[in-house]
Amino acid sequence: MDGKISIKYLQSYIKAKDYHPELEKDYFLKLAEEVGELSRAMRKGLKASDDSNIEGTLDEELWDVIYYVLAIANLYDIDLEQVIKAKDDLNQRRYPSAVEFEVNR
User: Fold this and answer.
1) Helices marked H in the chain — which ranges?
2) Which residue range forms the structural domain that includes residue 85?
3) Mean pLDDT per 10-residue run, the chain (105 residues)?
């Protein structure tokens, strides 16, 4: 792996692996649970010492939160790559910044 993973790829990977529209509420409850676990890991400062031992760390919990956010986006057929650009445009109008969002990165 070259280390480059797009949001589009992650969404398609998760959709192929875990797509159950009838479990919409459960996906949200899992997201809330994972946010709580992330909070605990942050409070305790649990950072992985290496990539092979991430269980219970910020590293693992951040991925779990991202996973369920993407799974929920899939349930609603939301392309988050498009949303990210649109939201950045909106934020740029509200809070102008010299830093520009680069598309196709």
Assistant:
1) 7-17, 24-44, 58-75, 80-94
2) 7-94
3) 85 98 98 98 95 93 98 98 95 95 82
